[in-house]
């Protein structure tokens, strides 16, 4: 069964290289002929792990190819997910499965509504990767991939991920995983943008973090995710400590003048709180401040 991977960015290349290395059939789906020509000139997907670099001559095609798709890994940003998934809809087999690698919340629901016949499996990933050159990925941080669609029924192909050394765990609580990661990202990432700092410096912002965690814990509770404000604050401080020397993904996006996933993180939290009539002045204000900072740089505020 071919792994169709839509999006040859950081995570798309990371998954493609590891699957290909394990002998799994992989086909990259690129946005157009220009990207395909660029890929073909690069002689494959590069994977750097520490001092080792390998290149994998993985097959690629454009989105409008004609091979039917049974298994799709959607490896684009959250704001591209719905349109990207819709563009391959005519090619999806009736029992197609789609793995959604997007961070935050909102895009998974949008894809599932757009493609109601497909089995949509959300992935919450704590792995870290970035591109050092087009189609060449650096595996920068070991982590876990939590997969789930709310059901107990784990797909048989999870064994292929083990073989490919892609860490994986099936969970019946994928929404809780996504919410908790969203809460961490909402507490940490916007502050690193506003203070222009590495994650570690946020340890000095304990009061602000405590207020945010209290509001975020209340929001998670409205969404049936049980975590106390103190537990959340502890987790946030642990992540800040463990990633002290790193710049958050949102900070990096802003520095490189790339669109952020604000709408699927803080924006989603604000909207969800309003829908629950939950008063969350601290993260409403943070959202506004982040939008102002993005606007000042000429970046999209959604
Ligand atoms: N990188 C990481 O370490 C982690 C990322 N994530 C999440 O994973 C998701 C993907 O992130 P990441 O891999 O870093 O993102 P990247 O920006 O590196 O890659 C996204 C890729 O998607 C491609 N793409 C977008 N739309 C289309 C389309 N319509 N057709 C074909 N290709 C398309 C882009 O192509 P093009 O280059 O042509 O624009 C780009 O190559 C995000 O939601 C992120 O938050 C989660 C955990 C860790
Ligand atoms: C390390 C962490 C948790 C910081 O929020 C992250 O996931 C990111 O940078 O996006």
UniProtKB/TrEMBL annotation:
The record's similarity note reads: Belongs to the ketopantoate reductase family.
Supply the enzyme class, top level. oxidoreductase
Q: What does this protein do?
A: Catalyzes the NADPH-dependent reduction of ketopantoate into pantoic acid.
Keyword set includes Oxidoreductase? yes
Q: Does the keyword NADP apply?
A: yes
Where do the Ketopantoate reductase C-terminal domain residues begin and end? 174-291
Q: Which Gene3D superfamilies match?
A: N-(1-d-carboxylethyl)-l-norvaline Dehydrogenase, domain 2, NAD(P)-binding Rossmann-like Domain
> Which EC number(s) does UniProt give?
1.1.1.169
Q: Name one GO molecular function term.
A: 2-dehydropantoate 2-reductase activity
Q: Which lineage is the organism of this entry classified under, starting from the top rank?
A: Bacteria, Pseudomonadati, Pseudomonadota, Gammaproteobacteria, Pseudomonadales
A single GO BP term for this record reads:
pantothenate biosynthetic process
State what protein this is by name.
2-dehydropantoate 2-reductase
